[in-house]
Amino acid sequence: MDLLTREYGALHSISGPLLFVQGVRKVSIGEMVAILLPDGKERRGQVIEISERHAVIQVLETTAGLSTTGTRLRFSESVARMGLSPELLGRRFNGAGEPIDGLPEIIPERWVGIIGSPINPVARDKPAHFIQTGLSTIDGLNTLVRGQKLPIFSGSGLPAKEIAAQILRQAKVVGEATEFAIVFAAMGITFREAAFFLDEFEKSGVSEHTVVFLNLADDPTIERLLTPRFALTAAEYLAFTHNRHVLVILTDMTNYCEALREIATAREEIPGRRGYPGYMYTDLATIYERAGRIKGRSGSVTQLPILTMPDDDITHPIPDLTGYITEGQIVLSRDLHRRGIYPPIDVLPSLSRLMNLGIGEGKSRADHRGAADQLYAFYAQGRDLRRLAAIVGEEGLTEPDKRLLKFAERFEQEFVNQGSEERSLEQTLILGWKLLGLLPKERLTRIKPEFIQTYYKG
Amino acid sequence: MQRPLEAIRREQGDFIGRGVVVPALSRTKRWPFVPSVKSGDRVSGGEVIGVVAETPRIEHRVLVPPGVSGKVAEIREGSFQVTETIAALDNGTALTLIQKWPVRTPRPFRERLSPTLPFITGQRIFDLLFPVAAGGTAIVPGGFGTGKTVIEQTLAKYAQADIIVYVGCGERGNEMTEVLADFPGLVDPSSGRPLMERTVLVINTSNMPVAAREASIYTGITIAEYYRDMGYRVALMADSTSRWAEALREISSRLEEMPGEEGYPTYLATRLANFYERGGRVACLGSGDRQGSITVVSAISPPGGDFSEPVTQCSMRVAGTLWALDSDLAHRRHFPAINWKRSYSLYMASLEDYYRRMVAPDWADLRKEMMALLQQEEDLQEIVQLVGVDALQDPQRVTLELGRIFRDDFLRQHAFSEVDAACPLDKQYWMLKVIFAYQSLCRDLLKKGRAVEEIFSLPFREELGRMKEIPVLGFTDRAKELMARMDKEREREVE
Ligand SMILES: Nc1ncnc2c1ncn2[C@@H]1O[C@H](COP(=O)(O)OP(=O)(O)OP(=O)(O)O)[C@@H](O)[C@H]1O
Ligand SMILES: [Mg+2]
Question: Does residue B415's CB lie within 6 angstroms of at least one atom of ligand 1?
């Protein structure tokens, strides 16, 4: 980070991670501040709010030991910026963008503010390329496409990181040789969880295409707010300057939101739902919206954020606001997990809004849409019947209903459940049609007759 | 806050920076103007003084601004830039093609007219069960992923209107890109022209500045009023009004105003009502009997999908139609995921006459019968949940099956289907007729002693399931043919 011009001494008060300074002029939000302690040590902060009377500075490390007397501030006139170069790949940084892999700072090709700017909607290009993840529940029913933001809604103890790692390992665009670059941002996760991912990258040989930003549970909370922004700045740079297809993992967004709440509380803001600030939707949007494609550039940014639903509650503000911004969600189910099904993806609340753009004739297969709809319809009916069968007994069901019940069971055991197996889309569709064969073909009214003719086997 | 995004892209590149100023309308482009009044004519606010062919489809009627009047001293035909004088009044007022209007002030009209014409959407569940009047307000609350945006976009494509103003307020960038990419290639069935030619987009995505988000709704409704004043049927699609309300909340909290419920400012209800009230069907200012309307379709994003929150509640107090979205239906991919028990339309009575005259005399009866059947099915389902299907008698099994047919094969409508994305009123009517014919067939066959399973396995059941994919052209004949075959089956003797 580069330097510096003006110094101030009038530190007014300290509250949690925040410093309040009076009488500063001409500072701007996002500007970096060096905090000079009387003993000559230095800490860093960032201007997060300016009012008539004072500026509010977030201290990036701890405020412990800071006092209002003797401390001086130096404003750098630069908002948090990041040096960028293709050498980022293969490197590891902390949540404030400093190298932690023992290697020297990279020599930047350019400096960019990490806050980012909105992509002009008329410059955006429609996502259109199907990414095969090798997981049937995603490829077959909730297709991921390049440039999408598709979060995993997990619960504590559910295998979100295994699924994310598997997707990173297997993701490919069929018919293309290019490899994805990976940007990995850890926010407030434990060392063990981070090590899991780093090991994975090592084992699957993708480390040289990976940029890692680590803000672990015991790292400064405030840096957690910067971590995803450093990561996305790197991702945008790789995608839109160097034409790479980038997959971004942000984990765990729940920790990010908690940090946001902590800061808001320290700022004595009026809390919104469950104590989270009212602007959390907008704040999250400035992260999640940094995905997509741009006309005339061949790279793309695809986001796979992971979040933990507190109490498995999908209506909690963190998953709720996320779902309102992202282009769908992959929801994990504790019930499936308990029953030993991996990946425990509950397809009913899961959704990919961009699926239609990535599938069909010439992209995946012409029967894909109809087959997916039909699988959904039968599975939903089968799940209802399961509840009914628990009350009135299976004998109380009609013949067609018994078949649906069986369909739901086999759908979970065979289609959802796949262990570490990697399935091509072709294999997924074959499996889907096999299950559809459990029902008489007159009932497949969501599928066009010509596809039933070709693929149905009763 | 109007910033034409193409011009900004030319100036700034693919990302939007801060502080760009670009005029909303090109100052250099020339438009052909043809006067329709001549010097010496008396004109007043709202009068049409001439036309510009804005797009091959839309004749842009140039209006005397509200509040201005006088005798035309001079008026010129020709090609003009928007700021050039095209006419002068005897009191010295110069008139230009461009008009400026403060977006927070409603534009005046002569009088309000009652909403007796429907806003025809091409969606069966809306047109039949929960219609909205042209000039009415429909609100669409629903949790994330329940289908608000798809509804707004589907209506923008297929609903009957002269002008669509689409306000993307605090939502996703990619969704706007989809509209920008799709609409130019889609053909408006009523005019045969690209849909884009009737569409105005007001875009403020979730990551753009909050103050502009607050303004975007007003910009949208003002544009809508402007075209209404020319005598057009305008539809305003707002996705989502909640994001606008949240922007209001963010601004209010920065101003350190006293927060009301859930942190919203106490004037939230008033602001919302004022916005919705700018919709309506009116007689326009000026001479002649030009009528225009603005139908407002407002998507609402309640936190946690819970309708008890302030934005949904305040909106419900003003809106005439509620299309209540339901996560459970969306999860099972029943789209549009409209919960038919929670939804309502207050316009029904005033529109019945239109349907009777324009579609069929028994439209309203069929509707009532269908609602009754859905209710009966619901009641029977409760019994089934307790004791199983076995406990039902055969006629009740028919009711159950019919409810399923209405839900699955009539109300469900796939927005991405080539044939069924939009369904004209006529086809809706004949689909209903066929389903009711099927019901009487089932009941008659039961009376003749045939087993219920056997009746359901007749091929008609599958045909009903595929009815919506039958092309509009020739549908009526297909429907009548199907009903004739049902009659034959009724007459057929079986051992
Ligand atoms: N009529 C429909 N036909 C087919 N699919 C639909 C229909 N309506 C919704 N969907 C499906 O549901 C998905 C979510 O719909 P949509 O994006 O409109 O939700 P939303 O209510 O706008 O959510 P959010 O509040 O998060 O913006 C769509 O991507 C589509 O797959
Ligand atoms: Mg939406």
Answer: yes
Cα torsion at B440, B445, B446, B450 (round to 10°)? -160
Question: pLDDT per residue over A55-96, tens digit each?
Answer: 888 887 777 777 777 788 887 666 678 899 999 999 999 998
> What is the rounded CA–CA span in Å between residue A242 and residue A114?
18
> Cβ–Cβ of B206/A388 closer than 8 Å?
no
- In this structure, chain A runs to a length of 458
If DSSP codes are grouped into helix, strand and coil, which group holds residue A222?
A: coil
In three-state secondary structure terms, A134 is coil
User: For B201-249, what is each residue's pLDDT tens digit?
Assistant: 888 888 887 888 888 999 999 999 999 999 999 999 999 999 999 999 9
Looking at the complex, does the CB of residue A275 fall below 8 Å from at least one CB of chain B? no
User: How far does residue B150's CA lie from ligand 1's centre (Å)?
Assistant: 5
Specify whether the CB–CB gap between A318 and A254 falls below 8 A. yes
Of A362, A444, A359, A389, residue with least CA distance to A139? A359
Which tens digit of pLDDT belongs to each residue from B445-461? Answer: 999 999 999 999 999 99
- A321 φ, ψ (degrees, to nearest 5): -65, -35
**Cβ–Cβ under 8 Å, residues B97 and B281:** no
Q: Nearest-5° angle of CA A408, CA A409, CA A411? A: 65
At residue A25, does pLDDT exceed 80? no
Residue nearest to atom 9 of ligand 1 (CA): B147
Task: Return the half-sphere exposure (C-beta side, CA atoms, 13 A cut-off) of residue A235.
Answer: 34
Q: For B263, which of A278, A325, A369 is closest by C-beta distance?
A: A278
Closest CB from A273, A289, A397 relative to B389 = A397
Which protein residue's CA is at the shortest distance from atom 28 of ligand 1? A353
Look up residue A441 and give its DSSP letter: G
Contact status, residue B93 vs residue B39, Cβ threshold 8 Å: no
Q: Which of A215, A150, A222 is nearest to A188 (CA)?
A: A215
Chain A hits for B181, CB-CB cut-off 8 Å, are 126
Residue (of B299, B262, B265) closest to B142 by Cα position: B299
DSSP 8-class letter at A414: I
Query: Model pTM?
Result: 0.91
If you measure from the C-alpha of residue B154 to the centroid of ligand 2, how many angstroms do you get, rounded to a whole number? 12
Q: Which amino acid is at B93?
A: T
Spans of chain B below 50 pLDDT: 1-3, 19
